[in-house]
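Lab notebook: predicted structure, single chain.

Context: the supervisor wants predicted structures on file for every construct in the current expression panel, including those that have not yet been purified. This is the next one on the list. No modifications to the sequence; it matches the entry in the shared construct table.
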Amino acid sequence: MLVIGLVIAVLAALAVGVNLFFFSRVKEISEWQTDVIVPGGFFGLSPSAIEEATFFVAVPGGLALLAFCFIGTGWIMRGKVGTREREGLQGGTVVSITPILAPRLHLLWLGVAVAFWVALVIVPIVSAMGGGWPITVDDMPQGYVWATLGMYGGLSAAIAGVLLASFLKKRRYLAMVAAEDPRLLEQPSGFWRWFTFRWRFDLWLAGVGGLLVGISPLPLTMGEALPFVLMLVGGILLIGVGAWCASHYWRAGVPLGVAESYA
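Prediction complete. Output recorded below exactly as produced.
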């Protein structure tokens, strides 16, 4: 399942490139703006209408989500999954214990996410501000080019934010374990267990912050400096708060690689 997920992830990245090439080359986009019926909007729930051109923009996102499902499931299957009796707020009934990603490999994936962000946001913006692509594309398809760049560049930056906070969480916890820090034996905090372990809100904060930082340069292409500053500062603050919360994961009293859910 991990291999299948990685293959689908590569297809998602290629689909982004295909979309950028197509929208950069097409001259007339109006014929692609008619509505089509998509079964369940990709997920087989119920049919929904979507603009044909928008459908193509969304295809890489659908593939990325599918890849995540396979990769996540495959990684969990490398560990152990069990059930337990729980009631009310005692905790999840399904528990998984998976091997943690090696720090160097973790940093490698962080680098990949940052590289995608640079390729999809920074490079096009620098090119555009110098009079090159994508502002050389016709007005109508150019909007779809920027939509594709912003959507998937922002997604790459969000993933980078999550990976950064996760790496800092891992580094802090492993350092405390290596030092046999006596604080690890203290009574777990119910708040930090709920916040950083059960719901991973520290990673959510860093992810939203990464998204804001990732798309913050886009307003510069329209000469808008204030939105750039606001999103950049807000994103950095959210990443900082997320990283700070992640550094307190040890208070949850749960080892790395453990997760729980309700079923």
